[in-house]
Amino acid sequence: MKTLPRWILLPAGLGALFVILPLAAMALRVEWSDFWGLITSESSLAALRLSLQTSLASAAACVMLGVPMALLLARSDGRAVSLLRSLVLIPLVLPPVVGGIALLYTFGRQGLLGRHLEVMGVQIAFSTTAVVLAQTFVALPFLVLSLEGALRTAGTRYERAAASLGARPSRVLTHVTLPLVLPALLSGTVLSFARALGEFGATITFAGSLQGTTRTLPLEIYLQRESDPEAAVALSFVLMLVAIAVIALAHRRRSA
Fold this sequence. Notes:
This protein is mainly α.
């Protein structure tokens, strides 16, 4: 702090207020006397349960797909790798609704792959699987970015040393590379889970809003906003608390 100019406190404080004040305003609107009843209704619990289940599945998919991608991007160079990185990170800047449309034209009944799956009796769009795919699509870049940066920072000297001692590539990966970047992997996984938990646009476009099947907590909040604003505020507060806990956990993992 002593090395920073004092004037920087003003924009930093304004930025903090810009984020904190809306959250505080929402917390002040919560009807605490009815809070428990609002968040434990049948539809609310079903949406929360579905959100947790699909977000966990999405986080697992992000790990399975994102770790190999991050390793490839961090340990390779060239124009093809740069292009692949750009494509992988597109969901970060793409409107989620556009992502949902892209998934629909890929896995929908008349989609690029969906029409072939339909012949085999597999229907993905407007199912719980569609929710997981939508969440994974938007959350995957968070894990790839976190892990690629950590891999580049760690370098390859320990991997080369292990290889020179006769360790096979798979053993180097599991016993040297991944343990070195484990905090980044854990924080990236947690951030992917958080992004999946809050996903709305791609989900409603690709999976729809069927209670107990595709209606996650963000979709439930959106629907309750018109019919029961108090319930929408209460559920939003719950989602905010979960997000704060997840971000705090991710930061703690990264600091460790």
